[in-house]
Automatic annotation (TrEMBL):
Gene3D superfamilies: FlgN-like. The keyword Glycoprotein does not apply. Belongs to the FlgN family. It comes from the Bacteria. Required for the efficient initiation of filament assembly. This is Flagella synthesis protein FlgN. Keywords: Bacterial flagellum biogenesis, Cell projection, Cilium, Flagellum. GO terms for biological process: bacterial-type flagellum assembly.
Amino acid sequence: MKRKDLLLRLAAGIGADVADYNRLRGLLQEQFEAAVCHRSEAIAAVGEAIVALAGTLEARRQERVALAGRLSLEKGAEAMQRIFAMLPPNPRERLQASWQGLERLVRECKAMNQRNCNLLMEQHEIMQRVLNTEADTYVPR
């Protein structure tokens, strides 16, 4: 594959990830709202959609890492910085803006996922306390 084709594929992958992370953000919000309202069926359905989307995102991330490595011979953030440096000003600015938008969305989704996890864990803990306390409530003394 030529360098230009690798760059186009990398840029397309970043664009697809931006779209999918926006979708993930919506799913995480749906999950939160379902958890707040204690709608277990909705939590399960949204959870399945999140897992499927996370698999797609992970596969695309792995492809991006491979493409960036082929283009720059670097790993991690250094690879993207080197790729940006290879580009003329206009395409560089567009790709950097997409990359920064993707990084922002990843951070947002991680924070939302942590929020959801905390809520679900708190709800589980409360339910366990209620169920375990109730067993002791009616024990004859």
